[in-house]
Each structure stands twice: as structure tokens, then as C-alpha cells.
Design goal:
Blueprint lengths: L1 E2 L19 E7 L12 E4 L4 H15 L10 E5 L2 E2 L4 H7 L8 E7 L16 E6 L9 E5 L3 E5 L9 E4 L3 H5 L6 E6 L5 E6 L3 E10 L4 E11 L5 E8 L4 E7 L3 E6 L26 H13 L25 E2 L4 E4 L21 E8 L10 E10 L3 E6 L5 E7 L3
Parallel strand pairs: 1-3, 2-6, 14-18
Antiparallel strand pairs: 2-3, 4-5, 4-6, 7-8, 8-9, 9-10, 11-12, 12-13, 13-14, 15-16, 16-17, 17-19, 20-21, 21-22, 22-23
Length: 405
């Protein structure tokens, strides 16, 4: 058994103890291969703390590897799934152990506690926080608030918002609906933000920065209404032609919105894109592929026809006008039923409320979809059920599990 004499904290070397001190055997292991040392066991004083153990590990590393390869590295030590924050003797006493017990310590790189950079007060409750995915420049953080505003923050200037825009619209105000925002999420290309609110609206906003002037601007591309209650969750994936948006509401409804650049939004809720004749000429193959993708999702789901955006004439994204967009697909996290008293049909119980949803994460080497699969989604709700959805087959309920509440 290796014996390590007591460390004198006033010097940088190990010196023999002047008096006999109580010692305890320890083993030292790590998952960090570059900092691995012989596991021991080592005999160390019970008066040692994390800093003494860290010095010991660094001392052994310097003798077993190239001394010039690294400097002194602070380590934390885990014993029985807990970080060591006392002396070894105090830990033994609190755990009801004796100094004859061998302590198995795992060491990891120590990290400093987070430092608060700034505080920004909003005018109302903050309902969500998200970060842009643009890795080529400084990431921009966004918040949504119950005052109906979206605010953008830059890490280089965190004490104030670099840009603020309101999502409140006249229709919501005139209808005396709640203008509070519940969600604001960046699209994966970081060129737009999708918002959801207490009024049940899902909206997509184009976001752009004038780097030369240091200013920002926003414009609403489309809004959609598929929920009979507040929107409580949103996720975004990258489809073949644009953003695919998944929204969930208090009404238990999941809505899928496909932002197809070559389709102009329509204000009609009942229009459906008609399949184009196979004999009709197209300028390119993208339109045909787009029709194929849209048609895969235009299927009846859960007894209710899916709705899709429509247009009488196809136009490029740059000519799309701000307007209403119909959902590509509507799904139910829980099956609607008739009200036991009023007899009303398609009534959802309060336990059907959706609490969380997401597009399934992919682990392929390709980044074209931003690491998310726009054809596979999951939803969870108050009813204790987790559901998986295959969106490519018309939203069939593919898999899931029930959680006991």
C-alpha cells in the first residue's frame, strides 16, 4: 500500500508529519483519461480537504506525464455520489465510518460557480427563454413576456435588450383576448422567431440585423389559429424547404405548421392545396417534391381532416404576404368525447392539457435538419401519457407510454 505523508499547506511539497496523525486509505479514479493516475490505495491524513487531495493528484500527474503538458488543475472529489465538502475525518464521522474504511474517491475537473453578468427587469412575467442557433456569430438570447413583447439580448451587452418588438394585434385586442405570450422560440436558421400566446395564436416573425448600423428589425410572416385555448408549448425543426413548427395547447391539440417558402399563406381555413397534374410542366423539381411532402401530411387524423395552407398561385418566399396560415395537420393528445351534461361533442377534459412537446432528436452526422426530425414528435400531458407521433404517415400514434400520476 502506498503511503503518502501529511501535506504541509505552507509549502509546495510533501513533508513528513511532525506528529503522528490519523490516516485513512483512499483510492483515486477518474473518467478523464488524460488525468488518470494509479488508483492506489493511498494513506492520507483524515484532516485533508478537497484542496489537499487536488494537490496530491496534480503532484502524481506531474510525475507520471510530461510536466510541461499541463499546469496545476483544480479537481473536485465525489464520494458515494456526493461532492466532498468537508475534511475526510468529518465525512467519516457523518457517515458512521471509521478510519479503517477505504474511501473510493472519483475526481473530476472543478468548475467555478456561475457568475451573474447582469439583471434585466421585464414589465411582466417572463414566460420563456431561448437562444439562437447561429454559431458563426454571437448567439442572441430571446425572452417572451406576459406583456406581449419579445426581447433580444446579446451576451456582449446583457444589461439591456438590443431589440424589443410587440406581438399584440388589433384582432386580439378587439376580441378582448389575453395578449400574454407563453412561448418564443428561434427557428434553426436563426432568421425567425415563432411565438405562441394565451390567445391561441401561433405566429412566425422574420428577424434581421443590420450589422453596419447595429440595428434590428422584425416583420410578421404569418399567423395561425388552430387552438381553442392558450398555446403552452412550441418546438421547431428544419424541414426540406423551411421551418416545421409544432405547437401544443391547453385544449390538448397538437398542430403542425409547415412554413413552405414557395407557398403563399391564405386566410381561408378550409382551402386545401390541390395535387397538381402529373402532366403539368414545372420550372424545377422542388415544387413537385414540396407537393409530395405536403400531401404525406394531408391525411385525416383522429377523425378530423387535417388542414393545410393553400394558394391559388405559387410564389417565391420573398413575395409571400403577411397573412393567415392553416395548420398542415391537427392531432389530439387525448381523444375528444361528448360532455356528460351538455352533450356537446369534441370536448376535451382538463386533464388532456399538453404540458410539453418536441420534435425527436436525431443523432446522424448530417446537420441539414438541425439535429431534429420534422417527421417524428412526442407529446406529454396532464393525463400522464407520453405519446410518440409519426408525422410522415399522417400523424399516426406510433408509440408511447402511460405514466401513473
Amino acid at each position: 500500500m502506498a503511503s503518502i505523508t501529511e501535506y504541509d499547506g505552507r509549502s509546495s511539497a510533501f513533508t513528513p508529519a511532525a506528529v503522528v496523525v490519523e490516516q485513512v486509505p483512499i483510492t483515486l479514479t477518474t473518467s478523464l483519461t488524460q488525468y488518470a493516475i494509479p488508483s492506489g490505495p493511498y494513506m492520507v491524513p483524515t484532516s485533508w480537504r478537497r484542496t489537499h487531495l487536488s494537490t496530491l493528484v496534480n503532484k502524481i500527474i506531474s510525475t507520471t506525464s510530461d510536466p510541461s503538458s499541463t499546469g496545476s488543475i483544480p479537481f473536485d472529489f465525489i464520494c458515494d455520489s456526493s461532492l466532498l465538502r468537508t475534511t475526510l475525518g468529518e465525512y467519516l464521522e457523518s457517515s458512521g465510518l471509521t478510519s479503517e474504511t477505504t474511501l473510493n474517491l472519483e475526481y473530476v475537473r472543478s468548475t467555478l460557480p456561475p457568475t451573474r453578468l447582469a439583471t434585466y427587469e421585464h414589465d411582466d412575467w417572463v414566460s420563456s427563454v431561448d437562444c439562437s442557433y447561429n454559431l458563426s456569430a454571437s448567439n442572441i438570447y430571446t425572452t417572451s413576456s406576459y406583456d406581449g413583447s419579445v426581447r433580444l439580448f446579446s451576451p456582449s451587452k446583457p444589461e439591456e435588450a438590443v431589440y424589443t418588438f410587440s406581438t399584440i394585434n388589433k384582432a386580439t385586442v378587439q376580441a378582448a383576448k389575453n395578449v400574454s405570450l407563453t412561448q418564443a422560440k428561434w427557428t434553426l436558421d436563426s432568421n425567425a422567431i415563432v411565438t405562441g400566446g394565451m390567445d391561441g395564436r401561433v405566429q412566425l416573425w422574420n428577424i434581421s440585423e443590420n450589422v453596419d448600423h447595429g440595428t434590428w428589425s422584425s416583420s410578421k410572416k404569418w399567423h395561425g389559429e388552430a387552438h381553442n385555448g392558450p398555446v403552452c408549448a412550441i418546438d421547431v425543426a428544419q424541414g426540406p424547404f423551411g421551418a416545421s413548427v409544432l405547437s401544443g395547447g391547453w385544449d390538448g391539440i397538437l398542430a403542425i405548421w409547415d412554413d413552405l417558402p414557395s407557398s403563399s399563406p391564405s386566410s381561408s381555413a378550409d382551402n386545401v392545396i390541390e395535387a397538381e397534374s402529373e402532366h403539368e410542366d414545372h420550372d424545377d423539381d422542388d415544387v413537385e417534391q414540396e407537393d409530395e411532402i405536403a400531401s404525406k401530411r394531408r391525411k385525416t387524423t383522429n377523425g378530423r381532416p387535417s388542414k393545410v395552407s393553400s394558394c391559388s398561385k405559387r410564389a417565391p418566399a420573398s413575395s409571400s404576404k403577411t397573412g393567415s396560415l392553416d395548420p398542415t395537420m391537427i392531432l389530439y393528445h387525448a381523444t375528444p368525447a361528448s360532455h356528460s351534461v351538455t352533450g356537446s361533442k369534441n370536448v376535451l377534459h382538463p386533464s388532456s392539457r399538453i404540458t410539453s412537446l418536441l420534435f425527436e432528436t436525431t443523432f446522424s452526422s448530417s446537420d441539414e435538419n438541425g439535429g431534429k426530425n420534422p417527421n417524428s414528435a412526442w407529446s406529454a400531458g396532464y393525463n400522464g401519457i407520453l405519446k410518440g407521433w409519426d408525422l410522415s404517415s399522417g400523424g399516426s400514434y406510433s408509440r408511447g407510454s402511460t405514466h401513473t400520476l
